[in-house]
Amino acid sequence: NMNADPKKSLLNVLSEDELAFLYEMIGDNTMQQFAAFNPWVLNTVLAQLLMVKAGLNPGDGIDMYLIQRAENKKIAALDTVEQQLAVLAYGTFDDQLAILKDSIQALRDIDKSTQEIHRIRDFYLSNNRKELSALLVELLLNVPSSFSEKKAQAYIDTLLTDRNRIWAQKFDDYLREGGNTFVFAGTAHFL
Question: How many whole angstroms separate alpha carbon 128 and alpha carbon 135?
């Protein structure tokens, strides 16, 4: 996912203001390194940074808790590595750039972003499915403004719907095998 085309270096396609913000947030050297990659790579870094700035530690996530608790039980992924990377690397360079710019804006609006993250967490922990579902739909529909309605739907389908269809077949297989299977996935998939 490196870009050999200098025109597609993030140093050449992000505004001076966006670059200055990123230099301040992640440092000059780090930004220089990520500039050579497709935008989705830096976007994943910024998503993690946003969570940390919101006071959440990825190591304390429920997924890590469940994996540790599984001990010697068989663990199987619902997605392959390739499928996960395809979701992260969604769209064209310009699509990824638009998503990256939204992530930069989310970091700039850190108070609003932190509030949204905490609302998601609080609704999840209180099992408030109605409010959580409404908030997740609102956030999922908040795709880059440059996306057409068709492209926005394709993005959501790639992120959730298409994967849910594949997983449904796996769930059917688990049911046919019998025994006990515990399935864990992101909340938006269930809602």
Answer: 11
Q: Output the six-digit token pair for 26.
A: 């992640």
Eight-state DSSP code of residue 167: H
Alpha-carbon span 56 to 49, nearest angstrom: 10
DSSP 157: I
Instruction: Report yes or no: 138 and 62 within 8 Å, Cβ to Cβ.
Output: no
Task: Give the contacts of 41 (CB within 8 A, at least 6 positions apart).
Answer: 1, 34
Whole-number Å distance between alpha carbons of 43 and 34 = 10
Q: What is the pLDDT of residues 84-94, one digit of tens each?
A: 999 999 999 99
DSSP character for 158?
A: I
Six token digits for residue 183: 């399935």
3-state DSSP assignment of residue 2: strand
Cα–Cα distances (Å) from 32 to 8, 21, 29, in that order, read 13, 13, 5
Structure tokens at 8: 């597609």
User: Residues 107-125: pLDDT tens digits?
Assistant: 999 999 999 999 999 999 9
Tell if the pTM clears 0.85, that is, is over it: yes
Helix, strand, coil proportions of the chain in percent (round to 5)? 70, 0, 25
DSSP code at position 59: G
